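All the exercises in this workshop are built on plain-text protein records. The record below serves as our worked example for the rest of this section.
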Amino acid sequence: MASPGLRPFLPSDAPTLAALFRASVEELTAEDYSDDQREAWASVADDEEAFARKLAGELTIVAIIGVEIAGFASLKDNTLFDMLYVRPDLAGRGVGSALADAIEKLAGGRGTKKLTVEASDAAREFFAARFYVAQSRNTVTVGGEWLGNTTMIKDLAAPPASGPH
């Protein structure tokens, strides 16, 4: 499969990204979270306006394959890798890696030395394979349900110094 194209989030993407978020949570985290936990987590996208504001308030990029949205990722305050979600039928096919590469490059280009992620149990191995190091185990309450995640940090390479002109 060819690498996905990447572009900035557009407000018109919000309904599609909300549906993708919900499908991703419901289908790709079943081994790590109960039905009630997944439903509470997925319900974050039920308020589409609030979800759109969150996406617009962060640096959000969208992955495109052909003409269809394949996934999205967001960077908050240039230091937090806040969201990474891939359409379930495209999981494991490079979409998440392309989005993660882009978020890491964007953060590094903005001078970020360490990038933090609150990795879900379903995503922990993905981030560990990208050299994120576990720092602490956490529980967060979402929709009245407790969900576990892991704070992980990656040291980003310093951008290359400019040579003589």
